[in-house]
Design brief:
This protein has about 675 residues and is mainly beta. About 0% of the residues lie in helices and about 55% in strands. It has one helix and 57 strands. The chain has a five-stranded mixed sheet, with no helix packed on it. The longest helix is centred in the first third of the chain and has 14 residues, at about 15-25. It is globular, with a radius of gyration of 26 Å. The protein starts with 13 loop residues before the first helix and ends in a 12-residue tail after the last strand.
């Protein structure tokens, strides 16, 4: 909830709003990006959106990459970024595709990009998904040309000739333990009309697939499945399913050997000379949990996650291990290249490897000398976007990541070109960053480490180089806070509601406190603070004298998020939104309610003349737009699916900024007048 500070200056008439709307349309035609000419996103969302349109996106967990020629196709969150890597030292996004949910895999063949995604529907374990096919002959302007919907969610894809193989999973609703996996074989001879050829269910949960030499290799946690696909007339003939390994995550094939990344055994070497009887012949432990493997020549490049070392009391590992397999019976690790967090998928091409680090982006590593891998370039993308503050053309975000140098901290995004937001500045902080609010050239961040919490004031007058201005040691992080004039109003969970004097950033002091059981969110309107106290109701507090806050009213019931406009408060609980008449704070009256498809996580509001809107995000229900122009009859005007869980939202008309955790930062344009204009004028 953040219609606050500079963000709280809204239009006062529809006429003025229309003028700004027109100017906004002109601004959106500008083109400033990492590469200088990046195109707007290709949005293939399944949302039924008419008032919300996706303007731009950045960030999200990076865990998959495919490389072809001078381009890398990078998966992070719901985005498939098309990155020009002709100069490895300066990779640049030149185009990107937005899918409805987090992507599960990517593959490229010729001029076609194949993407798969899976969806967890309304919190139930009934997975659905799709295969989308794009023509990327013009990488800056990908065009969707075909799609295929399987019977279940897609986990992984592999291509062999004119066929694509989809590993899928199906789960019984509400029972995550009742699942099975399978494969569907799809003919892509005509990419505009893919069609089913064969498929069935197989043991285990699918993890990874690789096609080579007329065979399809599939890992399913404990088994390596091998299929004969040499004869399309008799496809998917299962040959082997009895490897009984630990936890096989991925597979790479070279000659007569399969190299599997095993979460417990590291790199496992399997002799597949006889596909009917594959044999493990050796393994090489790595520092963390092995995720993926790529083979080139006599070397295997293995990625790993960090693991907790109980003796050292820290996380260790993470990055890439280089293993010499010139003697497959005796693999030997010869070098290590660290990355900030969990290294996921890896691709090896010529003298370079491309390593996906889930929290920091795509690392390009020179392996001309495998014994001494060296940094070549970085396509940096923040893996998590936990909280945001907006000031002018800049968005300031923080990431909730523990003890990972170079990842956790405050970062600045230039969003002057809404279609192509670009990260331009970063200030690293140890531990985890929880909250950020931006106002008047300052960013206020709550940050914690080793049980300590600080409110840090950052000077962002130069967004490319944020610097620490002052530090206030606190007892507990804020679940929500507002910076307004010379005060900060903080909802501090079990510590209640606090008012801080911030007029002198060098000497921040507590002005007063108000007891609340679990203060989660706060809204300010005129001389009142409205405190959402979780399951314990809504408090209205008179803050005319900040040093002496006085209870003015109380309403029982859930109050997870709070928005206030005029005489009405819009509070949310587990199942939806309730409208309260607060014209008399001492006698708060429930008016009506509206059910949501999930538990609301954050909210914002917008006033334009006589129009009133509340924006809500739900943990599995995406972004919802509620028209509350008539508070007694609220209705959902629009929605947009989101892939993760929205943690924060800022509305500065006409844009909506959403921090969607692993899904990244979304920027939407809210075309609030479309439904009111005559049809001919739309």
């Amino acid at each position: 909830m953040k219609p606050r500070g500079l963000a709280n200056i809204f239009m006062t008439s529809v006429r003025t709003g229309l003028l700004v709307f027109a100017l906004m349309s002109v601004c959106l035609n500008s083109s400033l990006s990492q590469s200088g000419n990046a195109a707007a996103p290709t949005d293939v969302s399944n949302s039924q959106s008419s008032l919300l349109s996706l303007s731009g996106h950045i960030g999200g967990r990076t865990d998959n990459v495919v490389v072809q020629g001078d381009y890398a196709f990078v998966k992070h969150g719901p985005e498939a970024a098309i990155v020009d890597i002709s100069d490895p030292a300066h990779p640049a996004r030149i185009g990107y595709i937005m899918l409805p949910e987090r992507l599960t895999d990517l593959a490229v063949q010729g001029n076609y990009l194949f993407t798969s995604w899976a969806h967890l529907t309304h919190g139930r374990f009934d997975y659905t998904g799709a295969l989308n096919i794009f023509d990327v002959s013009d990488p800056a302007h990908p065009v969707e040309i075909g799609s295929y919907i399987p019977s279940g969610g897609i986990w992984d894809i592999a291509i062999s000739g004119n066929y694509i193989y989809l590993s899928k999973f199906n789960c019984v609703p509400n029972d995550p333990n009742d699942c099975d996996g399978g494969i569907e074989m799809v003919d892509i001879t005509d990419p505009t009309h893919p069609f089913w050829v064969d498929g069935g269910g197989y043991l285990g949960s699918p993890r990874d697939m690789a096609a080579a030499n007329g065979f399809l290799y599939m890992t399913t946690n404990r088994w390596l499945l091998i299929f004969d696909i040499s004869d399309p007339a008799n496809p998917l003939q299962l040959l082997s399913s009895d490897m009984n390994q630990g936890w096989l995550y991925s597979i790479a094939i070279s000659g007569n050997y399969a190299y599997a990344a095993d979460i417990s055994d590291g790199l496992v070497v399997i002799d597949v000379t006889n596909p009917y009887d594959p044999q493990e012949i050796s393994h090489q432990n790595v520092g963390g949990y092995a995720n993926d493997a790529a083979v080139q020549g006599s070397y295997v490049y293995v990625t790993e996650e960090k693991r907790w070392d109980s003796d050292l009391g820290i996380f260790v590992g993470g990055g890439m291990r280089v293993v010499d397999v010139s003697n497959p019976l005796d693999p030997v690790e010869i070098s290590y290249y660290p990355t900030p967090s969990a290294a996921m998928e890896i691709v090896a091409r010529d003298n370079l490897v491309y390593v996906c680090d889930e929290s920091s982006g795509l690392h390009i590593v020179d392996i001309s000398n495998p014994a001494q891998p060296e940094y070549a370039g970085l396509y940096g993308v923040k893996g998590k976007v936990f909280d945001i503050g907006v000031m002018g053309d800049y968005v300031y975000g923080v990431s909730f990541v523990w003890d990972i140098p170079g990842v956790s901290g405050l970062w600045a995004v230039d969003a002057s070109d809404k279609a192509n937001p670009v990260e331009i500045g970063f200030y690293g902080m140890p531990g985890a960053s929880f909250r950020v609010e931006a106002a008047e050239n300052y960013a206020y961040t709550y940050q914690g480490n080793d049980g300590s919490v600080w409110l840090k004031v950052m000077d962002v007058s130069q967004p490319m180089t944020p610097t620490q201005f002052s530090v206030y040691t606190d007892t507990m992080s804020a679940a929500d806070f507002i910076v307004q004039n010379d005060f900060a109003y903080a909802a501090k969970g079990y510590s209640g509601f606090e008012i801080l004097d911030i007029h002198n950033p060098y000497s921040i002091t507590i002005v007063s406190q108000f007891d609340a059981n679990n203060a989660r969110e706060v809204a300010i309107q005129e001389n009142y603070a409205y405190i959402g106290d979780g399951y314990d109701g809504l408090w209205i507090v008179d803050i005319t004298d900040p040093a002496h806050p006085i209870q003015a009213g109380y309403s029982p019931g859930d109050a997870f998020t709070v928005e206030v406009m005029g005489n009405f408060a819009y509070v949310t609980g587990e199942t939806g939104m309730t409208v309260l008449d607060i014209s008399d704070p001492a006698n708060i009256l429930p008016i009506t309610g509206l059910t949501m498809p999930g538990m609301p996580t954050t909210s914002a509001s917008l006033k334009i003349g006589d129009l009133r809107y509340v924006f809500l995000t739900c943990d599995w229900g995406g972004l919802r737009v509620i028209d509350v122009t008539n508070p007694t009859q609220p209705f959902e005007a629009d929605f947009y699916d989101l892939p993760a869980t929205a943690r924060d939202m800022v509305v500065i008309e006409p844009f909506v900024y959403v921090a969607d955790d692993d899904g990244g930062l979304y920027i939407f344009r809210f075309e609030m007048f479309k439904q009111y204009l005559p049809f001919a004028a739309r």
